[in-house]
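Fold it.
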Amino acid sequence: ENMLISTRSQMSSDGKFFSDVVIEGLAPDGGLYVPKKVFPKLEPTEWLRISSMPYAMRAVAILENCIHPMDVSPVELSTMVHRAYGQNFANQSVVPLKHLTDHQYILELFHGPTASFKDLALQSMPQLTGVLVFFPEKGVSEIHKLQMTGFQEGNAKSISVLSDFDFCQRSIKRMFGDSSLMGHLAVKYAMVLSTANSINWARLLPQVVYHCSAYMDLLRNRTLTFGDPIDVCIPTGNFGNTMSALYAKQMGIPIRKVICASNHNCIISDFIASGEYDLRNRKLLVSNSPATDTLERFIHHVSGGDGSLVRDLFLSLERDHFFLSIRDFTLHNKLLLDDNITIY
């Protein structure tokens, strides 16, 4: 239970523990880590019990089901989570749920130190590793740049790069694939590189918590009774965030539809509509909410864990900057007909 495998391996492969994949970041075969089995599903009575708790305690109760206690002890996990969400957020609720109108609610994810939803995951990662942040110099707002570069204490540093986000992502993956570089760092500096972006399972797992927490707030204020469905809309088009909602659904949260709203960086919606994933002659456009996406976990999810298919598709993408999923009609039909998710 609670073991993880690469998106590019078969379901029969040996799994790894959470602490191993946090350090590795990217799997040795170039894939991303996903649960070997589906997420543990909690009973309605357990969700009702958790709904009465404050956010940090909710996070501990949920994450305890996803991380093996022989890997990270419950005491250690509780200490790290309470340190991450104790004093770092401006709102006592951490992620308050606000009523908009009629049956619409908004989950506020901007109360952390950088006013970004990423704080919900990145506040926990420094409890495990040192953090060095690469960001595109001209790809973020001025206030976001000041937030990241203004805090240079402890084990967290930020560095700007004179290129776009895709370059940062490609460069990190290239570094992880360079065995001589990794060996040099290990021997000379006793350093092991990991990645803190949505490649890393430890970045995505805390996001599952706030999707669950939103539903529990609706239970606690008696807006819903357990079993009433909700739809989740991700307005940033961030696909790691979208996958987190699908994982929350696997855990038993009654999510009916996940709506992933892209902006002009709409390669995911183009892919699902056409079956073509084409990065050739396509540049990431600067925007207030860049829709950079972790698609590989979703392909693994909808293909039923077909590691060979995922490996072939993404090796083609890395080599040719293109793949055509419509050649596999089963996969493309699943992408088009999946009733869990809407992308536009």
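The chain has a mean pLDDT of 82.
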